[in-house]
Design a protein that fits this description.
Elements lengths: L1 E8 L9 H20 L3 E6 L7 E6 L2 E6 L8 E9 L3 H9 L8 E6 L9
Antiparallel strand pairs: 1-5, 1-6, 2-5, 3-4
Length: 120
């Protein structure tokens, strides 16, 4: 079964983190993604640009409304994701807990709903 692991972090903390800690965290994340590939859990992953680059799009009464940045006011922002294969939710949680970023942010693990025909 597929699980989407959403990586959240507090973007406002980045300027306070020493460069060598950021470099170490980046190296640890690369190693983690290499492990995901070797362990055959990896389906795909991406890191997102900062929220200041985001736009939120809504359509109301046929009119397109665009807002700068994400709409939700939260302490932590979505920074990226990795899509994995796991036997069950427990295994997916075990895999997500190995992500180094879980030490300073969090990882939401969500089962991917499989579409059957026209059923959403």
């Amino acid at each position: 079964m597929k699980y989407l692991c959403l990586m959240y972090l507090d973007e406002s903390m980045e300027p306070q983190i020493p460069r060598e800690m950021i470099d170490q965290g980046t190296a640890e994340c690369r190693s983690f993604f290499d492990w995901l590939v070797k362990s055959r859990h990896m389906v795909g992953h991406n890191i997102l640009e900062k929220t200041r680059a985001a736009k939120t799009v809504r359509v109301r009464e046929g009119k397109r409304l665009i807002t700068d940045r994400p709409f939700a006011e939260t302490k932590e922002q979505l920074g990226g994701y990795f899509l994995i294969e796991a036997n069950d939710l427990e295994e997916a949680i075990e895999v997500a807990a190995k992500f180094p970023g879980a030490q300073w942010g969090c990882v939401e693990v969500r089962p991917v709903h499989q579409l059957n025909g026209s059923r959403l």
